[in-house]
Amino acid sequence: MHKHPQYKRVKQRKWLNANTLLEPSVSQSIVDLLTEVDLGESFPVEYLRSQYLSKFCDEGLTPAATRASAAIAKWVSTEEINRVTNARLKDRDPGYNIMPRVAYSSFLRWARKLISDVLGPLRDQVVVGSFSGGASTSRRRTESLPAFKFAEQADATVAAMQYIDVLWRQAPLLRQELTFSRLNEVEGAVLFTVPKKTDIDRCACKEPDVNMYLQKGVGRHIRRRLLRFGIDLNDQSRNRNLAYQGSIDGSLATLDLSSASDTITIEAVRALLPADWFEYLNDIRSPSVLVGERYHRTEMFSSMGNGFTFELESLLFYALVRAVTYFESVSGIVSVYGDDIICPSGAAEMVRWVLAEFGFTVNTSKSFSEGPFRESCGGHYYDGEDVTPFYLKKRPTHLTDVIRVANQLRRWATCGLFRKYELQATYNLWLQLAAHVPENLWGGYDLEVDTILASPGSPNRQLLRLSSPRKVPVVGSYLHWHNTNWNRTRDPDKPGIEPQSTENRCRLRKVRNGTPRCERLFYEEELLQYGSSL
Question: Domain ranges in the chain?
Answer without folding.
Answer: 24-52+392-466+503-533, 64-386
